[in-house]
Structure formats: structure tokens, C-alpha cells
């Protein structure tokens, strides 16, 4: 295959759905559990799941320093939901011992929507992705409370009690969404990410 090699961090979470979505956009997809597997990929997806658990497993699998280094070297990473939390520099309502990769200069609030309702769906328009709004699925999702200069806001909730909350961002080669495009069969965000990986290669 000529497509970029994209890894899915496969410690925990909805790994299979991201593998399917990335395969659907022509990427050569690998699951990543070991440092040697990380070395072989051009980009990485951090799936939805549970960021506190993922944080522990990243240490147990000795992936923290290797992922930090690849991010510092410019590897594209896309985090959805728990993956967004893992990319944030600051997490509110997290566990004191949870740690991410601090790649995107933003503050996220964990389980933010969950105070009103555990899961909900809403249309979200994403800057740079044509074809109309995403049918965004939020499951105990974080939202972004604050971004530093240098972080591009790509999408916000457009209605309901969480109106205007930031739910998609990009900083350089790092991309994050609060919602789960891998669950709805809409491949446009995975295509956007695969293009980003291809461009960075
Ligand atoms: N609430 C989860 C966390 O804190 C994220 C939920 C999800 O990824 N669907 O990591």
C-alpha cells in the first residue's frame, strides 16, 4: 500500500473502530503497544476510552518517553475524546495522578457534558472539512475550556445547553476532537488526519 503508516494506540478504548476508519481512507494501519511498533508509524491515533486508565497503561507499556519524543519531533497525532484529554496541557476534573502528553496548549474539562447528560449527539461544523456538519457523538466527553495562542479552534457545539463549547482543535500536527467520528462511519476526519500524516512524512 502506498498510503501513510498510521498507528492506533491499542492499550485500551475503541481501537477497532479507528483501525476500520483509517483502513477505509487507505492508510496502512498498525496497532501500537510497544516502542518498536511506535517507531514504525508516521502518525498515531489515540482513541476514546478512559484517560485515567490509558495514562497508567502508557507507563506500564513504557510508551511515555517514546511518544513524548515523537510528538516533539513533529509526528502527527489525532486524539478523540479520551485521546483529546491525553493531548492537553491541562486537565480539569481529572485524577491527580493522570498524565498526558501535553502537546496541545489547552485546558480541557473531563466528563464536562456528563454533568447534564452522559451522552448526546449534535451537529458540528469542522473548519477545513467540506461536506457539511459532522453528526457528532459525545460519550462522557471533555470540552475545551481555554486555548492558548497557536491553537486553532476547528469546531464548536452549535446548539443546546453546551452551545459554543469548543470540541475540535488543532495545533500544528496535533488534532483533537471531543466526539467520536470513528463511531458514525463518517470518514472525513480520518481522511483529514491521513492527509496531515502524508504531508508530514
Ligand atoms: N470520560 C473519559 C475520560 O475521562 C473519556 C470518554 C471517552 O473517551 N468516550 O477519559
Automatic annotation (TrEMBL):
It comes from the Bacteria. It comes from Micromonospora matsumotoense. The keyword Nucleotide-binding does not apply. L-glutamine binds at residues 49-51, 110, 139-140. This is Pyridoxal 5'-phosphate synthase subunit PdxT. One of its GO terms (cellular component) is cytosol. The active site is at 81 (nucleophile), 180 (charge relay system), 182 (charge relay system). InterPro entries: Class_I_gatase-like, PdxT/SNO, PdxT/SNO_CS. In the presence of PdxS, forms a dodecamer of heterodimers. Only shows activity in the heterodimer. CDD domains: GATase1_PB (cd01749). Keywords: Glutamine amidotransferase, Hydrolase, Lyase, Pyridoxal phosphate. The gene is pdxT.
Amino acid at each position: 500500500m502506498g498510503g501513510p503508516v498510521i498507528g492506533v494506540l491499542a492499550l485500551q478504548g475503541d481501537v477497532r473502530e479507528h483501525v476500520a476508519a483509517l483502513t477505509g481512507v487507505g492508510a496502512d494501519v498498525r496497532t501500537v503497544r510497544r516502542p518498536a511498533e511506535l517507531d514504525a508509524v508516521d502518525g498515531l491515533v489515540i482513541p476514546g476510552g478512559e484517560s485515567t486508565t490509558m495514562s497508567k497503561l502508557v507507563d506500564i507499556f513504557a510508551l511515555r518517553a517514546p511518544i513524548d519524543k515523537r510528538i516533539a519531533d513533529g509526528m502527527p497525532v489525532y486524539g478523540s475524546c479520551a485521546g483529546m484529554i491525553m493531548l492537553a496541557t491541562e486537565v480539569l476534573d481529572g485524577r491527580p495522578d493522570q498524565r498526558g502528553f501535553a502537546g496541545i496548549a489547552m485546558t480541557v474539562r473531563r466528563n464536562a457534558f456528563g454533568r447534564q447528560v452522559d451522552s448526546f449527539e449534535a451537529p458540528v461544523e469542522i473548519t477545513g472539512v467540506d461536506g457539511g456538519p459532522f453528526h457528532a457523538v459525545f460519550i462522557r466527553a471533555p470540552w475545551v475550556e481555554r486555548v492558548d495562542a497557536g491553537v486553532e479552534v476547528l469546531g464548536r457545539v452549535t446548539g443546546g445547553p453546551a452551545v459554543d463549547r469548543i470540541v475540535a482543535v488543532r495545533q500544528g500536527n496535533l488534532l483533537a476532537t471531543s466526539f467520536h467520528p470513528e463511531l458514525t462511519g463518517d470518514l472525513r476526519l480520518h481522511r483529514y488526519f491521513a492527509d496531515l500524516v502524508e504531508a508530514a512524512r
